[in-house]
Design brief:
By secondary structure, the protein is α/β, with parallel strands linked by helices. 43% of the residues lie in helices and 10% in strands. It is globular.
Length: 314
């Protein structure tokens, strides 16, 4: 099977290219390294590259931007919305079998939620990244309805695994440096994570299973939430990363209520929600659609710690 993947120079796109390539699929890598200029895409050239592809997995995105650049909505829209639009039109013109868009749970704008997240959860992005990914989803949906392009949208939470960037990596770095973490009492919250192996499993299913396209006949993209089967508490997450790092975490036990009050008083309410609250994804829709995920989240976190330890010990 010919499978096109964007962003193969990044963490997720690279992992998918390796996983699917070792299974014998022909990978069409679309990245700067393969001559793609994301700021000046040539639709006709893309259409030619995509001819004969059974699927296009769009992973390339502007993400993990910090500081002042994190609020540059124009830059996010150019990278995440316009690129998606051009790719979707090229895929439709090339008769690509399926377009898989890697979106994000950030389209919901939630740092915490009292109920499991699914397609009924309101859309309310809170930052430029989440807003641009929601616009990208809408752009894809518009083209899919107009052209009958079969499309699937995936909204994962934090992605973990050896070498993964983002918040998980920053927490692992803090543990490795021996920083005290006042989170010893946060043992009852429930946070869903997505191991890179889980994402690969869901993408394989989305490429090949008819049920991934959803039950309707409207050509609107089906939306799914890749996540490991069992959520994890913040304390357990820290302890598991530390085990992989070969370190004893410096956990300080403070009452959760006090932590929340102090964080909110310091203008860090969103960080407090992320560390103290629940954010759980409902796994049942994927299970009912025939997508079985058996990832051990703790094993994935430990492997992430082991990988960082190897880098630090070089």
């Amino acid at each position: 099977m010919r499978i096109a993947i964007t962003g193969t120079g990044g963490y997720v796109g690279g992992a998918l290219a390796r996983a699917l390539g070792t299974e014998g699929h022909e990978i069409i890598a679309l990245s700067r390294a393969t001559g793609i200029d994301w700021q000046a895409l040539d639709r006709d050239e893309l259409t030619g590259r995509l001819r004969g592809a059974a699927a296009l997995i769009h992973c390339a995105a502007r993400v993990h931007v910090r500081g002042a650049k994190a609020s540059d909505r124009t830059a996010f829209e150019a990278a995440n919305v316009e690129v998606t639009r051009v790719l979707a039109r090229a895929a439709a013109a090339a008769d690509v079998g399926r377009f898989i868009l890697l979106s994000t749970i950030a389209v919901h704008g939630l740092s915490a939620s009292h109920s499991p997240i699914d397609v009924t959860t309101p859309i309310a992005p809170r930052d430029a990244y989440g807003g641009s990914k929601w616009q990208a989803e809408q752009a894809l949906a518009e083209i899919a309805r107009a052209t009958s392009l079969a499309a699937v949208i995936l909204r994962p939470p934090v992605i973990i695994g050896p070498g993964a960037p983002g918040n998980g990596a920053r927490l692992a770095q803090a543990i490795a440096r021996g920083w005290p973490l006042p989170l010893g009492a946060v043992r009852a919250n429930r946070r869903s994570l997505c191991a890179i192996s889980t994402l690969c499993d869901v993408v394989r299913w989305a490429i090949t299973d008819r049920r991934a396209l959803g039950p309707g006949a409207t050509h609107a993209p089906a939306v799914w939430y890749p996540a490991d089967p069992l959520p994890i508490s913040t304390r357990r997450l820290i302890e598991t990363l530390a085990r992989g790092l070969g370190r004893r975490p410096r956990l300080v036990t403070l009452p959760v209520g006090l932590l929340s009050t102090l964080a909110r008083a310091g203008g860090q309410s969103r960080l407090a929600d992320q560390l103290l609250g629940d954010l759980e994804i409902d796994p049942r829709p994927l299970e009912r659609a025939g997508c079985r995920v058996n990832t051990d989240t703790e094993a994935a976190l430990e492997a992430m710690g082991v990988a960082l330890r190897a880098v630090l010990e070089r």
